[in-house]
Specification:
The complex is a heterodimer.
Chain A: H1 8-18, H2 23-81, H3 97-103, H4 119-123, H5 132-140, H6 150-180, H7 184-197, H8 204-217, H9 221-235, H10 241-245
Helix pairs in contact in A: 2-5, 2-6, 6-7, 6-8, 7-8, 8-9
Chain B: H1 11-29, H2 32-49, H3 58-85, H4 100-114, H5 118-129, H6 134-141, H7 145-173
Helix pairs in contact in B: 1-2, 1-3, 2-3, 3-6, 5-7, 6-7
The chains are: A mainly alpha, B mainly alpha.
């Protein structure tokens, strides 16, 4: 053997040349990084949508609340300005009898802090804009009464549900992987459930790799080997290939 | 702050230029079987944080990421060790088809590195094998430059003793 210590630099160069990933491993790492990066980008985009949905929903709720408040006040003000809108006999600072009776009702709305002048209008069910009085009040009030809450509140749950699906998908797969060691049958059931619930999941490759291992672990060697063959044929360069390739081997003594 | 001349490297450039380096560090900090996974994770983190890179030593920066990822990976890996025991041996060393003397020299270096303390190994590998400057290593490890030099010197002294021992063993074998 030559003496490599004569030139430490040459020895180090030799070491660098010998200790590096093979081209196949380089390609596999690169592919895995790109796949994970794409998944990460998708997740970030989804999170942004969820965040945006939450902000929009919060904004709409705030606008609704303000609208209700302003609407109530303007209705009261309108009632003060226009005797036709006021209950019979009501004058400024002097609530009408009818409203006095209603304000005594022990409904949940009675818990709202009382507003002296506008107490009757707070009692008025604001969203029901079909009554003439409210319609008239709407015409005198401005923007907040015109807010339509329905549209944004649809956006948020859709984006959120996708993110939740992703979380559930990941959770299910992690649980399957965790159980693989001690209870491969349970792991297999979870993987089947995952396949049913998330057929087009971005984690399908990992699921298939775990399924191969789980099938062989529970003794379904024929099915396991068949799926192993298909997996390696289609994904021979994936990060899971080495693990899958070794999944269905058994010690020589165990072979029939 | 990067000047126009020192433009920020793209992720692809970083990956191509430093995969071998990161993989070797990962292999030393963990093991051969984990090196691929760790390298993958390191480049994911690097991709995420490349915009925050302050323009110092890129290899020092990557070393810091690799060390953290390897540490986390090793923690998680313990849980799977028993599962992995059921799997066959990892694929043959990527260098197994190399010329024998080169592989032999690399194996000898591996044997030497395995006997070094972690701090000396870290300094020796980064300085002698990966050719980082003492200043780069000091920044990456958060230690003074003179500490780097003293660790490298101590590792080199051990290398001399290691080689002398090997030589004696070879002579006895003849």
């Amino acid at each position: 053997m030559s003496d490599p210590t004569r030139d430490l630099e040459a020895w180090a160069a030799c070491y660098r040349a010998a200790r590096r990933p093979s081209p196949a491993r380089r390609r596999a790492i690169r592919a895995a990084v790109l796949e994970a990066a794409a998944h990460e980008d998708r997740r970030i985009r989804q999170q942004r949508w969820v965040g945006l949905g939450i902000i929009v929903a919060a904004g709409v709720l705030a606008a609704l609340a303000i609208g209700q408040l302003l609407g109530g006040r303007s209705m009261a003000a309108g009632a003060e300005r226009d005797p036709m809108l006021a209950p019979h006999g009501a004058t400024m600072g002097e609530p009408a009898e009818g409203f006095e009776i209603r304000s005594d009702e022990s409904s949940p709305r009675a818990a709202t802090p009382p507003v002296t002048d506008s107490a009757p209008t707070i009692e008025e069910p604001a969203p029901a804009a079909s009554t003439p009085a409210t319609a008239a009040a709407t015409s005198t009030s401005t923007k907040p009464r015109r807010v339509e809450p329905a549209r944004p509140s649809v956006v948020a749950p859709v984006a959120g549900s996708r993110a939740l699906d992703d979380l559930e998908s990941m959770r299910l797969l992690r649980e399957a992987e965790r159980r693989l060691e001690h209870d491969a049958a349970a792991s297999l059931r979870l993987l089947e459930r995952h396949a049913q619930q998330f057929p087009g999941s971005s984690l399908a490759l990992e699921r298939e790799a775990l399924t191969v291992i789980a099938l062989c672990s529970v003794g379904q060697m024929k099915a396991g080997r068949e799926r192993q063959r298909l997996f390696l044929r289609a994904n021979g360069q994936s990060a899971y290939a080495a693990r899958v390739a070794g999944a269905c081997t058994v010690p020589p003594s165990a072979e029939p | 702050m990067a000047t126009p001349e020192q433009r920020e490297p793209s992720f692809d450039e970083v990956f191509r230029a430093h995969l071998d380096y990161v993989w070797r560090i990962a292999r030393l900090l963990a093991d051969d079987a984990s090196a691929d996974d760790i390298a993958q994770e390191v480049f994911l983190v690097a991709r995420r944080r490349l915009a925050d890179f302050d323009g110092g030593s890129l290899r020092g920066w990557l070393y810091g990421i690799t060390r953290n990822v390897a540490r986390n990976h090793q923690r998680g890996r313990r849980r799977y060790l028993r599962l992995l025991e059921r799997l066959p041996e990892p694929e043959a060393s990527p260098s197994s088809d190399l010329a024998y003397p080169q592989e032999e020299a690399a194996a000898l270096m591996d044997a030497f590195l395995a006997g070094l303390s972690p701090v000396k190994r870290e300094a020796f590998v980064l300085h002698v094998i990966e050719e980082l400057t003492a200043a780069e290593i000091a920044a990456a490890l958060g230690v003074p430059t003179r500490t780097v030099y003293s660790r490298v010197r101590a590792a080199q002294a051990e290398l001399e003793r290691f080689v002398a021992r090997r030589r004696r063993q070879l002579e006895r074998a003849r």
